[in-house]
Amino acid sequence: PLGVFACVTGVSGSGKSTLVHDVLYRNLLRAKAQTTDQEPGACKSVIGAHRVREVVMVDQAPLARTPRSTAILYLGLFDRVRELFAAQPEAMAQGLTASAFSFNSGNGRCERCSGTGFEKIEMQFLSDLFVRCAECEGKRFQPHILKVRLHDKSIHDVLELTVSEAIQFFAQLGDERGLQISHGLKVLDEVGLGYLRLGQPLNTLSGGESQRLKLVGHLREAENAQRSVSDAQNSTGEAIGNLFIFDEPTTGLHFDDVAMLLQLFQRLVDNGHSIVVIEHNLEVIKCADWIIDLGPEAGDAGGELVAVGTPEQIAETENSHTGQFLRHVLSKSRKALPIIATQLLSTHEFHRGERLDQVAGEGLQKIAYDFERSGAYAQDDSIEFARAAEAAPRFRASSRNGAIHVHGAREHNLKNIDVKIPREQLVVITGLSGSGKSTLAFDILFAEGQRRFLDSMSPYARQFVEQLEKPDVDLVSGLPPTVAIEQRVTRGGGKSTVATVTEIYHFLRLLFAKTGTQFCPDCDLPVAKQSAASIVKQIEGAAKRGPLKVLAPLVKARKGFHTDVARWADRQGFDTLYVDGRLVPVSHFRKLERFKEHTIDVVVGAIDRKRITKARDVVRRALEIGRGTARLLDSKNRLSVMSTEMSCPSCGRAFEELDPRLFSFNSPHGACEECGGFGEIWDQDVQTGASADGESVLENELAAERESEWIEEDEARECPRCHGSRINAVARHVRVQGHTIDQFTNLSASEAMRRIDRLKFTDTHQAIAAGLVPEIQQRLRFMEKVGLGYLALGRSAKTLSGGESQRIRLAAQLGSNLRGVLYVLDEPTIGLHPRDNLRLLETLTALRNKGNSLVVVEHDDETMRHADHIIDLGPSAGIHGGEVVTTGALRDIEKNPNSETARCLSTPLCHPIRGSRRSLRDVENWIEVHGARANNLKEIDVRFPVGRLSVITGISGSGKSTLMHDVIWPAVREQLNQRKRAGNGDLFKLISGAQEIEAVYEVDQSPIGKTSRSTPGTYVKVFDEIRNLYAQLPVSRVRGYSASRFSFNAEGGRCETCKGQGVIKLEMNFLPSSYVPCEDCRGRRYNPQTLEVCYNGKSIGDVMEMTIEEAAQFFSAHPKIARPLSLLVDTGLGYLKLGQPSPTLSGGEAQRLKLVTQLKRGVSRAADERIRKMRKPGSTLYLLEEPTIGLHMADIELLLKVLHRLVDEGNTVIVIEHNVSVIAEADYIVDLGPEAGDAGGEVVACGTPERVAKNRVSRTAPFLRKVLNTSLAKKVLSF
Questions:
Q1: Cα distance between residue 545 and residue 540, in whole Å
Q2: Which end of the chain has fewer surrounding CB within 10 Å, N or C?
Q3: CATH of region 405-489+801-906, choose from 3.10.50.40, 2.170.150.20, 3.40.640.10, 3.40.50.300
Q4: What is the pTM of this model?
Q5: CATH fold of 498-517+658-786, please?
Q6: Which residues is 940 bridged to in the sheet?
Q7: Cα separation of 438 and 29, whole Å?
Q8: Do residues 442 and 486 lie in contact, with contact meaning Cβ atoms separated by under 8 Å?
Q9: What is the rounded CA–CA span in Å between residue 40 and residue 998?
């Protein structure tokens, strides 16, 4: 029916949109001879198109996407407003037309912001920033436009009025145009939009506001159309209206907005229009005059007409789903509603084309809507079904998020364990090295959390992501999103720096690009860009202080007579030139010296206090002639330059607008041309891509990065052009308050913090900096908190130690400000001095207090004391571990008799464990270093006793690694190579006393190779000897088998089905890869023929399955095999299998494996000396950097015994260590400091532990004193 509010209902998929959009709307358009973008829906006929004037589809598209459209503009009333302003005397005097008062076009709007009132600043990886235009101060128009007043209000003031205020303002004008505007705005006020400002951008309106404004627009158009056709009638003499079609108009609307919407619907119907609405909202459905219900179900089971009629008739239809819910709503809200309308509609039979309002007249309309328009239908709170079939689930409200539950964990050596990990707490997982800590933390918790995150991606996206394997566990529940902060996962790209890893550089680049001032690299003068209006404003200000001449540059430092320039000026009507600093009338211009450089400007006009109104036209003309540049000459003959372009006012060099990429050394826009952004040069052709061997620029860059990672420090030299700053000259000449970006990155984190605190910003820059400076500050603050305040921001990431790189990533995570995340950390205290431990623990506590959960794999007793919950795994390592020994607070752990952790905590080591220290008095030879000055070392003299255990201590960053790796290691190595017996090195003056050293071995913190083809047997090179042994057996010799036959990495003896891996990897595309045992070799890696060769009844496959302890006994008759295996047993690794893949080793196991590999070389060399040369071998120097990484307190005891045994055999061991147990065992200590970075690099104390403990300056002394006093007390008690 026409002239009513009709509603199409039915379950989702029943055919509502097809009927209304495809059939009704498109066929009506075709009937009206209008085009449609799609084919109309099939139907026999659509009759009655002539009974509607227009068919209007009111969709849910936003009113506007830009801020250029406003409410008054949308209603078409702004033209009247502009005409009113153009009719004012001030406007007419200046010749201003209505177009001058438009902020979307014309010459009256602000040039800088193009009439928007604000400027959009693209913040790259942050959301865009909108700041008020500095020129018009958000008023959209130029000053001369704003001076035109209408009843004491400027055009800006009018746009700032609310709709309600504007109705009164325009009504009081007494002008016909004012009354038109006032009347047009009244509709907005009536539909509850009186609070909107006239100039409010439409893209800032809510869904409900947009919906109502759109309907008001249609209402106004319809009213105008009705007036224009003078109540046009069709052939039968009936007034015709429009047909409005809505598709779920209540989506996103509040109940109160729905009431407003229904009032507008009623208003449209009252004006003779028809409405068809597709809707599910029962509040709308029950208010309809007529309902068409489709169904009964969705898809193939739908598409039929279930019922038509009034809401009451639909409610009584048994097979209508809508009717069931409508019945419930009507029974509640229709109690007081008169039922005349229902009776009238139910008894009347409609004829084709007959309208409802013809049947019932005005009385029916009033009765049917009295109740709904009062809004009472929305007041009944007892209505349970506000929307059909919608019920909110009830979630368990809890202040705590419960716990993470792990059930049936069998990954690696875990023995089907169940663990409960409380959330939003600091949980420490401890136990012997190899007991399963990292497996639980990383391979189960982190891997499962990461896997679940990736599961939320589409299968297509997942195939591009390297996925972690699904752990062997029955169930993990309560797991939040996970972030892993591991040790030494990566060395960082060749270009990574401390600032880029912590993201400080990202924010610095943005800060410099948006608030920096470009200076000319050649002239060191500031370069700026400004609009013509801004220049006019400055000149007007200057003219008030004194008269000015505005010049336009014509010739800049060019040789010649330049008579043509004078002729041009004369033709253009100019009378004066400014030639080489003198004013010359054009009529008196004479030929200039031909071979001398001349600079000529034309005087475009003069401006003073009286002629200030001419400024705009004069400046525009000068900028036009000077191509964006004009010059001012004041009464004192001083020149100043004004330019709309980014160009140097002195040499004219032009610059691109500042962009964050300009400061990136990973981008060709910002990288130094000479070193390619590396800051150092080793192979210029590779670095800059000159030797284009790769297929693409990217390949060349990656090749250079790979090369840079392995370049030794002495192979590269500092770039002479950028001096290590990595960026080009243009980027180095951008300044923020006098500071360049490379000056910032040269500072340490602590110094940068102080520098950034002193920066003060104003106006637009303040708005920009407000989002950037706090991000930089908090990241710098977190670097200080994790003990890295001494690191320079520009320091290469590849030069960081394992502990430093882990804490750098920790600082980056702290800066990300996440909440509700599970952080999994692997020994965050490594490489950290005991003094800094407390600050780190405070940082972790802060992370927890933000609402995050922390799982920390740790051996440090101080961390355990700070933990909320401890999980102790064990009881031993490897196959003897993998069980939960005990859980709870520290006091619960200490009570457990089976816990190795409890034993070490309750009975700490008594130092020295041998009972006494080796004397320093009878040391004959000392390794002496003089004038060491590498990195932060300050010309120090230091010495170490030969044949003793020495420990280098000090705060992180005090220079320990520098002393060992950059001074002692290269110096001793050079002497051994006999290239330099004595003399000065680059980084030290002299090293002496190394004559007694016959070999030197270094164990640094670089990770061991982690490929599945590497095993403990292959890593310590013992497997080569085993293969040689098997190749010597009679069966092998008869068959012609060589040692390579017994390698699982080479063809011949290995199983070719699994390529010697023992397992077959199944690629699962978008799922994690799966591994299944090889069916041919049953996981034994070799083919049957190879396995037939046996030694003492064991094949090579059986040997791979032996533990190191079993293998040491099995091969006891072969010293070359037994010796390294015994060393592994001594360091507590006897439980590992010879064939265990290296990736499955824990950090502590890998560290000891690396240590034993170096020790084995020294021990084997010494044994060879004894046997072959029949002499006592000289001392071997072992340089060890933090060998206790990843080791439990019980494992440290084993390590100390191995180190003591080495020293007892006459070797020299120098260790860098923070672990107090190792420091207390030293025969000699060198303590560096007192602080880190520039405040370090000096020898604070040296001597025995007892002597160093008494030092008042040493940062190590208090902790050493505490341990020694405990040991002393225990000795006294034992006596």
A1: 9
A2: C
A3: 3.40.50.300
A4: 0.72
A5: ABC transporter ATPase like fold (1.20.1580)
A6: 932
A7: 69
A8: yes
A9: 94
